[in-house]
Design goal:
The structure holds 2 protein chains of 2 kinds. By secondary structure, chain A is of the alpha/beta class. Chain A has 3 domains: 196 residues, SGNH hydrolase (Rossmann fold, 3-Layer(aba) Sandwich); 145 residues, HAD superfamily/HAD-like (Rossmann fold); 199 residues, Gcn5-related N-acetyltransferase (GNAT) (Aminopeptidase), CATH 3.40.630.30. Chain A contains 21 helices and 20 strands. In chain A, the strands form 4 sheets. Chain A has an 8-stranded mixed beta sheet, sandwiched between helices. In chain A, strand 18 and strand 19 form a beta hairpin. In chain A, helix 18 crosses helix 19. In chain B, 53% of the residues lie in helices and 0% in strands. Chain B contains 4 helices and no strands. The chains are: A alpha/beta, B mainly alpha.
Chain lengths: 561, 75
């Protein structure tokens, strides 16, 4: 690693967490340090023991304001606001909890991880106020679902899985006001770390699946496509059926599916034709069904999809294949099908590498990659790039980011690694600030062609500084690259800059990382001149009179800025 | 037993074993705060396979108090 990429990595893997609590939960620090799946450095601060909805104006304000995330970890027992005449009052409790969450956002926290509440201590199966508790947690969950920048952390569910006696430390509650046991805090820390990692661009995007004894019970090449067990009504097939449904749900949330199986392709395809199979061949964006080494196949899948290997997860039942991939590709997360197959439906639920939130673009991502494959087939028919692009009828729409596209814009900064000139990560709050600032232009690109619309896949942030402007960020999702879209976007962005700020010199820099090498000479291709170079950045300038020429082979549509 | 106690205290409070003298207490070791106290209880109980009585837990604020509690019969 060069020093430049090292600092880029360090920058993207540290996070500030502010815990808003009403009990002693400091032990979570050790778990955050120890349990993080990736080298994510978490700096943790804590609220007072009686967090008050108006205290954010005074104490604690600085910690909340600097926080990448605020974690609300509240116990009902010390929460005076939650009880009326000794009984849990869901309205009062929700009013308090939601005010704390909003208060944290107002005070400057970038996002809030909102915990659900455990039952009051000593609550048994005939708890009279069960409805009140479910109502409270239901409202907390709905509030997180419908409020931007607030995400649910279902602490009550974690506790239920552990069991009351394990999740609650009665003795430490009594002695130290510390009701959450080490076991519970560990799970909370795991989920918190995963949520923080997702916004630093470290989440997984591709799931590569083995077929035999992973998607069904049996070996299709020996047993035959009709004999492998896959049905929900068959005890041998039931775990696999459930697993397939979970895999499909992951795909719907934006994870790309790929196959890596040692088989004859026709055999595997025949199983997906069976009516009992939840998964269809069309659900997979790419496949490697052959007798090659699986690590090599995963490497070639990464090339085909244009995604880094560190965004891959691999699932296989074989010790040998899992060990081989772990050794050859340490950046790939390898999950092994449990030896006790009835544990298979619990495999993905325990894995935290895939991102939780999903935008419209996420849900459509899989179709986009299939369209990209069709485009490549089309490319094969055309001798030169210009003719190919013309045949696609590409339209690039460029428009200012607004409320409807803020979340997607933030997500692009967090997830785009390859065609990203500066790799600066921003969250929704940052983007909101930038769009509100008169000296900043935040532009997005929406790309479509005759194979389909691909949604918001490009983002540029341009800031005015004195009599010049600088392109702070410029990125395109790799699935729209290769059709001159990058040039068209640069042309539209520079034209919009001139419209807004006049005939100014435009500065732009390239900050090298391990992943964005392909962008090193991009600005030169656009007509910028290199004016400075150091290990961390290469600086370019576009003279006040120079323009970026857009290719004729595609259409640029600019909506007013 | 003294050395085992010393090792656990040093480990939890992140200080060299040599700095845990027979007079060790929150007064002599700055990292010995109320939060580390909780970790210390957990670590001592795991090391010696005991469960301190509630009344004893809060009093375990020095090397000698810990040694005394471990020497006495515990539940």
């Amino acid at each position: 690693m060069t020093p430049a990429t090292e600092s880029a990595v360090a920058q993207s893997t540290s996070a500030r967490l502010h815990v808003i609590r009403n009990a002693t939960v400091e032990a979570i620090i050790d778990h955050l340090r120890f349990e993080s799946a990736r080298p994510l450095r978490v700096e943790t601060t804590f609220s007072s023991y009686q967090p008050s909805t108006d205290a954010f104006g005074e104490v604690g304000n600085r910690d909340v304001a600097r926080a990448d995330a605020a974690l609300l970890l509240l116990s009902l027992d010390p929460m005076r606001e939650a009880f009326v005449n000794g009984r849990l009052d869901p309205d009062a409790a929700f009013a308090y909890v939601s005010a704390l969450a909003r208060g944290a956002l107002d005070a400057g926290a970038k996002r809030v991880l909102l915990g659900t509440c455990l039952p009051p201590l000593g609550t048994g199966g005939r708890y009279r106020d069960a409805a009140a508790l479910y109502m409270l947690n239901g409202r907390i969950a709905a509030f997180a679902e419908e409020t931007s920048r607030i995400e649910l952390l279902d602490v009550a569910r974690f506790a239920a899985q552990l069991g009351d006696d394990v999740a609650i430390d009665k003795r430490f509650w009594s002695l130290f006001e510390s009701p959450f046991s080490a076991a519970l805090l560990r799970v909370v820390a795991q989920h918190t770390t995963a949520a923080l990692a997702a916004s630093s661009g470290a989440s997984k995007k591709v799931l590569v699946l083995d077929a035999d004894n992973t998607l069904w019970r049996g070996i299709v090449g020996e047993d035959g496509a009709l004999a492998v067990a896959i049905s929900a009504t068959d005890p041998a097939g039931r775990p696999f059926h459930t697993f397939q449904r979970q895999v499909l749900a992951l795909k719907e949330s934006g994870v790309l599916l790929a196959l890596a199986s040692k088989n004859e392709p026709a055999d595997v395809h025949a199983v997906f034709e069976r009516s009992e199979s939840v998964l269809r061949r069309s659900h997979f964006v790419a496949e490697r069904i052959d007798w090659n080494d699986k690590a090599e196949n995963i490497r070639s899948l990464a090339e085909e999809l244009g995604l880094g290997l560190d965004s891959f997860v691999f699932i296989d039942d074989s010790d040998v294949e899992c060990a081989r991939v772990r050794e050859a590709l340490p950046m790939v997360d390898v999950l092994q099908v449990p030896r006790a197959v009835h544990d298979l439906p619990f495999l993905l639920g325990r894995y935290l590498g895939f991102p939780e939130g999903a935008t419209a673009e996420d849900r459509r991502r899989s179709e986009d990659y299939v369209a990209a494959r069709d485009r490549r087939t089309e490319l094969g028919k055309h001798a030169d790039l210009a003719a190919f692009v013309s045949s696609l009828a590409v339209v690039v729409s460029v428009f200012p980011v607004d409320g409807a596209t803020t979340q997607r814009a933030a997500q692009l900064t967090q997830r785009t690694n390859q065609f990203n000139l500066t790799t600066k990560r921003y969250d929704v709050a940052d983007i909101e600030r930038a769009t509100a600032d008169d000296d900043t232009l935040v532009l997005a690109a929406d790309v479509s062609d005759r194979f389909g619309a691909q949604g918001v896949t490009g983002l540029a942030i341009v800031r005015k500084a004195g009599d010049r402007v600088i392109i702070d960020s410029f990125m395109l999702s790799c699935r729209v690259l290769g059709r001159s879209v990058e040039l068209a976007f640069a042309a539209a962005v520079t034209a919009a800059v001139r419209e807004r700020f006049g005939a100014v010199a435009i500065l732009a820099d390239h900050r090298p990382t391990m992943k964005n090498t392909q962008t090193r000479h991009f600005y030169e291709k656009c007509g910028f001149e290199q004016i400075d170079e150091s290990a961390e950045r290469v600086l370019f300038e576009l003279a006040p009179t120079a323009v970026v020429r857009a290719p004729d082979s595609l259409m640029i549509h600019r909506r007013p800025t | 037993m003294n050395d085992r106690i010393r090792r656990v205290i040093a480990d939890v409070l992140a200080v060299p074993e040599a700095s845990v003298g027979d007079d060790a207490s929150p007064k002599t070791i700055p990292t010995w705060d109320s939060l580390r106290q909780m970790s210390l209880i957990v670590a001592l109980e795991a090391e010696f396979g005991v469960l301190f009585d509630d009344a004893v837990v809060t009093s375990l604020q020095s090397f000698s108090a810990i040694r005394g509690a471990l020497a006495a019969p515990v539940s």
